[in-house]
Amino acid sequence: MIFPALSALLYLFSRLSTSQALPLPKVYARAAVRQNLSQTQVASTLLRPALFSRVAYCSSETVANWSCGAPCDALGPNQVLLTGGDGGSIPRFLVTHDKTTNAIIVAHQGTEKDKVLSVLNDLETALVEANATFFPATADTDIRVHSGFQSTFERTADQILQAVQSGLKSTGATKIIVTGHSLGGAVAVFDGIMFSQLLPDVPLEAHMFGLPRSGNQEWADFIDKNIGDNFSFVTNQNDPVPRLPPLFLDFQHASHEIHIDDVNAAGQAVKVQTCLGQEDLNCTAGKSLLDVSVNNHAGPYFNDIKFGKSQCPLG
Length: 315
Ligand SMILES: *[C@@H]1O[C@H](CO)[C@@H](O)[C@H](O)[C@H]1NC(C)=O
Ligand SMILES: *[C@@H]1O[C@H](CO)[C@@H](O)[C@H](O)[C@H]1NC(C)=O
Ligand SMILES: *[C@@H]1O[C@H](CO)[C@@H](O)[C@H](O)[C@H]1NC(C)=O
Ligand SMILES: *[C@@H]1O[C@H](CO)[C@@H](O)[C@H](O)[C@H]1NC(C)=O
Ligand SMILES: *[C@@H]1O[C@H](CO)[C@@H](O)[C@H](O)[C@H]1NC(C)=O
Description:
nine-stranded mixed beta sheet, alpha/beta, globular, binds 2-acetamido-2-deoxy-beta-D-glucopyranose
């Protein structure tokens, strides 16, 4: 079944690509030699963030005392510092102390695969100035960000910043990890940049899944400069969401895409590759419009991890 929003988007793509040459991304990898990521590398950096992003879909009541069933149990003991959100204009979120890694985790709920294209369509996609209250170094620059994603971020930024600051003190945690799937990933990118600006001395990691583009080329460069190698976003096979909003509207991804090329019948990623530079044409940016699967947006990522409310057995 083709979703109406998807066909509208494809129509838009086809119109624009026949009426004008689709500009190439401004930075891209030539003669890319991509690295294969081993299971060990995946397990040490990406697996737990993916599991936390999955928990972010579960109800605040079950997450608050870490009793959300399998998604919580898969992570071991956590001291939850803050939960909130309404599952609507304020997607659910959690701030927790992960005892296994002694990190403060911030995770945001994303969007169900059958709604994601219409939600992306409905959100204000204008490129606007970044909010200098949270990102002081963006003042008087050409950095522009996705208006709808930034507004969503602003609704929770203050309380999340406070919870993280007091959590670092009360738990003795040694780093912050931000994560999210889909629109939750977009919000978590803003969180990550906020921490890099306002808590620059605290080690930070940021790992996203099924991430849409969140700003312009200068914003992508700002992410590269401020989070660099500690930033990554995982794209799964033919998921169209990481291709939106499109390059021709001046949106651009930061570096450090990790692309899942192949998944076996058991839901294990069997081919995971690091991509080179921003918008590597050998990864998602190079996909044809015919290679679209909205189902790939939900997963499976790595060890059969899927995202959505259906993954939360207790609601
Ligand atoms: C993609 O990778 C192949 C081999 O891995 C290489 O021959 C090709 O030049 C790459 N394409 C781009 C656009 O980097
Ligand atoms: C990655 O793995 C594929 C097989 O899945 C292999 O063909 C390719 O050469 C490997 N690339 C590198 C850089 O090792
Ligand atoms: C967690 O909270 C829920 C709802 O508030 C309650 O039903 C459940 O018994 C609590 N579980 C534990 C392990 O405390
Ligand atoms: C930045 O976000 C804060 C908190 O939501 C808001 O009060 C303020 O108006 C925003 N600033 C700009 C320039 O949009
Ligand atoms: C990047 O992550 C590593 C591992 O968590 C951490 O030691 C390092 O301090 C981080 N770097 C920055 C700039 O946050």
